[in-house]
Write a structure and sequence with these properties.
This protein has nine helices and 21 strands. The protein is α+β, with helices and mostly antiparallel strands. The protein starts with a strand and ends in a 12-residue tail after the last strand.
């Protein structure tokens, strides 16, 4: 286990800057997930930690040692890639133990350590098979075993589950989390999949356009997004966002003239400003179109999620998602009303996208030990 310190790290390709001064402190044994869309710089940042990309500016320290000038093999990191990168002519046992072989470890010790890793990953029946005879999930476990056997200070995962089907991804997420609990090795996991991030992370680092937008626990990132980008990126469905202004009475006025009440103190403090109003689907309620104060909309389609349902509506040409609760129901094309809980509203600057106020109703539930 080793802490990682990333200090004002930048990456340029020629005159093009792709990572803009990232600062991040990762505690020993922590599982960090870097989440963001394609092209945001998350894999580049991971590769700089691994030593596979040069750092243009700033410094990275692993276990107290600045590693900017160290070769990848000297950093104490083991990396698991998206494409497995297994040797096709070698057996599972040979793939897992290859790093030990090139390090001069005796055959007897190699076999002992390979068997221990295979047992931890439930790969014992496959040790004599070659990669082509394995499923995608089994190959990914072999790649993880090859990383584990080195007993690294740090595990680095570069979108390792992207090539797996949905059911297998869920199983592998659980496997990776159990493995981390057992080993306690500091881990950085890169993904664009928010479900992976919410499931695996001790803390999530949300990146956008080469910058860190927010760092926090999964609960903090979901309930208290600190920017318009995070609000619109994290969550399924994403947070509903409406742009408008706060009038002199402290109410939000959508550009089509619709009025949404705000908590009095919050609204008065922002009177006259252009803002973006955000509300989660579960903080909106579907009601009759004639309900006083409800926003009129048309049901577009219903997303059946098994344990829950989400109605996607058209509100003045904008999509607004509402979580169905209880016996509430509707059909595509129905005229409906949407009531929004004023205490669950998020507000962001229309100019900078920064959060202007935390919603009073979005309290984190206490976690029982």
């Amino acid at each position: 286990m080793a802490p990682i310190s990333i200090r004002n790290v930048k990456k340029n390709y020629g005159k093009t800057a792709v990572v803009h001064g990232v600062d991040l402190e990762i505690a020993s044994g922590e599982f960090i997930v870097i989440l963001g869309p394609s092209g945001c710089g998350k894999s580049t940042l991971l590769r700089m930690v691994a030593g596979l990309e040069e750092i243009s500016d700033g410094e990275i320290a692993i276990d107290g040692t600045v590693v900017n000038q160290l070769e990848p093999r000297q950093r104490g990191c083991a990396m698991v890639f998206q494409n497995y990168a297994l040797y096709p002519h070698m057996t599972v046992a040979e793939n897992i133990g290859y790093a030990l072989k090139v390090s001069g470890i005796s055959k007897a010790e190699r076999r002992q350590r390979v068997e221990a890793v295979a047992k931890a990953l439930s790969l014992e029946p496959y040790l004599d098979r070659r990669p082509m005879a394995l499923s995608g999930g089994q190959r990914q476990r072999v790649a993880m075993g090859r990383a584990m056997i080195r007993e690294p200070k740090v595990f680095l995962f570069d979108e390792p589950l992207s090539n797996l089907d949905a059911k297998l991804r869920i199983a592998m997420r659980a496997e990776i989390r159990r493995l981390h609990r057992r080993l306690g090795t500091t881990s950085i996991f890169v993904t664009h999949d928010q479900n992976e991030a919410m499931t695996l992370a001790d803390r999530i680092v949300v990146m956008n356009a080469g910058k860190v937008e927010q760092v926090g626990t999964p609960e903090e990132v979901y309930h208290f997004p600190t920017s318009r980008f995070v609000a619109g990126f994290v969550g399924s469905p994403a947070m509903n966002l409406l742009e408008g202004r706060v009038n002199e009475t402290g109410a939000f006025v959508y550009d089509q003239g619709r009025i949404i009440p705000l908590p009095a103190q919050q609204g008065q403090a922002l009177a006259g400003q252009r803002v973006v109003l955000g509300v989660r689907a579960e903080a909106a309620q579907l009601v009759s179109a004639e309900t006083p104060g409800a926003l009129p909309a048309t049901a577009d389609f219903i997303e059946e999620l098994g344990a829950s349902r989400v109605v996607h509506t058209d509100f003045d040409g904008l999509p607004v998602a509402v979580a169905l609760t209880g016996t509430a129901n509707c059909r595509p094309g129905d005229r409906v009303g949407i009531l929004i809980d004023p205490q669950a509203i998020h507000l962001y600057s229309a100019d900078t996208g920064a959060s202007l106020a935390a919603p009073a109703a979005a309290r984190l539930m206490p976690v029982e030990a």
